[in-house]
Amino acid sequence: MALILREKHVRSLLTIRDTVDVLEEAFNALSQGAVLNQPRSRLALTSGVLNILAAAVPTFGVIGLKTYTAFRDGVRFVVMLYDAYDGHLLALIEADWLGSMRTGGTSALATKYMAREDATIVGMIGAGNQAVTQLMGMCAVRPIATVYVYSRRAPECEIFCTEMTRLLNRPVYPVATARQAIEMADIVITATTAREPVLFGEWLKPGCHINAIGSNWAQRREIDAATLLRSALIVTDSLEQAQMEAGDFIIPADEGLLDWAHVYEIADIIGNDALLRASPHDITLYKGLGIALEDVAIAAHVYRLADRQGIGEELNLLP
Predict the structure, then answer these.
(1) Are 231 and 285 a contacting pair, CB within 8 Å?
(2) Could you please report the per-residue DSSP string of 250-316?
(3) Mean pLDDT, contiguous 10-residue spans, the chain (319 residues)
(4) Side-chain-side CA neighbours of residue 49 (13 Å)
(5) Is 118 exposed, middle or buried, given 0-12, 13-18 or 19+ CB atoms closer than 10 A?
(6) pLDDT for the residue 275
(7) Backbone dihedral angles phi then psi of residue 194, each to the nearest 5 degrees
(8) Predicted pLDDT of residue 278
(9) Does residue 20 contact residue 298 with C-beta atoms inside 8 Å?
(10) pLDDT for position 208
(11) Reduced to 3 states, what is the DSSP secondary structure of residue 67?
C-alpha cells in the first residue's frame, strides 16, 4: 500500500532542524560511497521544461526520483519514492515545500560547516519563494540576530520582511540597495532568478560566508568573478552537476578565472577539518544546485513520519 502525501502533510511533518540533520546523514553516506546520485536531466519544449533527478540511498532504504514541470502557468513538483530492497512504490509526494525545505536545509548544512561560529548578521538578495527557507535554515545553525533583505520589488520585500520578522522572531529589515544588504553581513545569500551577477566581490566583508542558490542554468549567474577570486573555499552539492549547470562556475571557468580542481563538494568537507576555513578572515562560498540525493533523503524522512503517524492517503496498486 503506497501513500499519497499532499503539500499539507509535508508542511505538518517536516521541520528545518530535522531537514538539516537528515541531509547531514545523507551527505555523510555520499562521502562513504553509499549513494548513487544522478544529475538533473531536462526535456525542453517550446512551452516548458520537464526536469528529472534520481538517486539511490540504500542506507535510508530507498530509491526515488523527483520530477517537475516548469511551464508558463506554474511549476509542479512530485517525488516518487520506492523501497530499495524490493522496488515497490512507497509514496507519491507533492514536493513544492519539500524542495524549498531541502534547499534551505542544504544551505544551512553548508553554513554549519563553513560559516564562522559567531556569524549573527544575514544579508540576502531576493525575497521570493526560496528566501523563506533560506532564512529558516540560517537561524537553525547560527545565532542570527539581524537580517537585511534587498529585492527589486520593494512592496513585496516589505511584506516579506514583516512576515519573516514574525516567523523568525527576530528583526528582518528591507533595504534600498543590494550593497546595503551585503556590506555588513556575516552570511550572504543570493536567491534570485538573475541572468547576470547581482553580488559583487568588492562588497564582501572579510570572514563572511556566501550561499548562492538562485541559478542552476549554465548561461546564468548571480555572483561575479571577483566573488570567486576572493573565496578561500568553494563548495557545491555536486561537482558533476555543477559542471553541467552552474553558470556561476562555468562562465568564469571558461574565462580561465576558476579551476575546477579547487571546487569541493559538501560530502568532502563533512568530517574533514583540513577543508574547513583556515582563518576567521577567509571568505567561503557554497553554490547550491539542488540534487536528487537531497530530495530523496528528505522524502524518505517525511514518508517514515507519515507512515508511523497514519498520515496520508492510501493508494492501492497492483503488486
Answers:
(1) yes
(2) HHHHHTT---GGGEEEHHHHTT-GGGS-SSTT-EEEEE----HHHHHHHHHHHHHHHHHHT-SEEE-
(3) 95 98 97 95 94 97 97 94 96 97 98 97 95 98 98 95 97 98 98 94 98 92 96 96 96 95 94 82 97 98 97 81
(4) 9
(5) exposed
(6) 79
(7) -65, 150
(8) 86
(9) no
(10) 98
(11) strand
3-state helix, strand, coil in the chain (%, to 5): 40, 30, 30
Dist CA 297 CA 127 (whole Å): 27
Residue with the three cell numbers 576555513? 277
**pTM as predicted:** 0.95
Phi-psi region of 12 (alpha: psi -120 to 50; beta: other; left: phi over 0): alpha
Q: Decide: 248 and 221 in contact? Cβ < 8 Å.
A: yes
Burial of residue 278 (number of CB atoms within 10 Å: 0-12, 13-18, 19+)? exposed
List Cα–Cα distances, 233 to 149, 229, 266, in angstroms: 25, 10, 11
- What is the residue type of 20? V
Which cell goes with 217?
A: 542554468
- Cβ atoms of 22 and 101 closer than 8 Å: no
Residue 30's contacts (CB-CB under 8 Å, 6 or more residues apart) are: 37, 265, 267, 293
CA-CA distance, 284 to 275, in Å (whole number)? 11
Q: What letter represents residue 85's amino acid?
A: Y
